[in-house]
Amino acid sequence: MSSARFTSPRRVSVAPMMDWTDRHCRAFHRFVSRHTWLYTEMVTTGALIHGDVARHLAFTPEEAPVALQLGGSEPDDLARAARLGEQWGYDEINLNCGCPSERVQRGAFGACLMNEPQLVADCVKAMRDVVSVPVTVKHRIGVDAVEEYGFVRDFVGTVAQAGCNVFIVHARNAILKGLSPKENREIPPLKYDYAYRLKRDFPQLEIVINGGIKTLDEVAMHLEHVDGVMLGREAYHNPYVLADVDARFYGSTAAAPSRAEVEAKLIEYCAAELARGTYLGAITRHVLGLYRGVAGARGWRRVLSDSRKLAAGDLAILDEARQYLREDAEMFE
């Protein structure tokens, strides 16, 4: 029986992924699913305080709901960045306490923050004091050789006292030395039971599980124990997995969009973006998996990866790519 006490808007979400979940990726995912909760790439507080705010935060209203993930460890800086996020229309501010990259470690944030739960609590409080949208935390279950469940339990307990009600649990340890970010997503063993235990120990909190989840049947299984499930690389490489999310997990009665319908919306989006001066390849790089598993998908990907053709900015490239697909003819009638 599910331990969830309510239906979370984060029942299914797509993880924040550096270099991937930019505004074009999110717009594309929104063509596939209306309700899946989406996240930005991590944006550092320094990039917002000292950089081009519009470049980092601008997005189209059609992408909503969208959460802004922040990277930082200074409460005042995070408060300023969170306030900007709310002003730009984001539905949630998420603090990254899970990234293990060396660059993030040099900035003293990401996964190493799990070793300083009181600092994280201070950061959460500083953000909650200046915004009205939810402030959430994404974290690992342990750092380096720390394997005890009590570590993540105490971390969540401390941060929850600052008013954080939503914890996104990447159910692996973060190995700060010796493993690359990619290896950190694959080598440390998954311990889903740690996330389940957090929900049992903190039934009043919203617990979302993340890590290695690939199918909607797996999503349904996890939802028997926690409030939400976050998909990562599967949603990026196989985006059509999101097509049945709305009906299956949000009660939508609308028919799932066909791949052809998704592509039609994509073409409209590309036309609008080309008129704004966007490089076509900045969009098509995110859609290469739309026809994954369909005969001819390799040809589709090859055409849409041709830098020479993409530079021409001609949408006829999509017609050419489609010639390689051997799906049922009625899809394109």
Summarize the structure.
By secondary structure, the chain is of the alpha/beta class. The radius of gyration is 20 Å and the shape is globular. Helix content is 41%, strand content 14%.
Descriptive report:
- This protein is 41% helix and 14% strand.
- The chain is α/β, with parallel strands linked by helices and 333 residues long.
- The strands form two sheets. The chain has an eight-stranded parallel β-barrel, surrounded by four helices.
- Residues 1-5 and 327-333 have low confidence and may be disordered.
| Largest beta-sheet details | 8 strands, parallel, barrel
Low-confidence stretches: 1-5, 327-333
Number of domains: 2
Spatial sequence of strands, sheet with the most strands = 1-2-3-4-5-7-9-10
Instruction: Specify the CATH homologous superfamily of the largest domain.
Output: Aldolase class I
Structural class, by secondary structure, is alpha/beta
- What top-tier CATH class of the largest domain fits best? Alpha Beta
The ordered string of helix (H) and strand (E) elements is EHEHHEHEHHEEHEEHHEHEHHHHHHH
Mean pLDDT: 93
Total strand count, please?
10
Query: Gap between N and C termini, in Å?
Result: 45 Å
Helix content: 40-55%
Indicate the overall shape: globular
Q: What percent strand?
A: 5-15%
Binding site for FMN: 16-18, 69, 138, 170, 210-212, 232-233
GO molecular function: tRNA-dihydrouridine20 synthase activity
Cofactor: FMN
EC number: 1.3.1.91
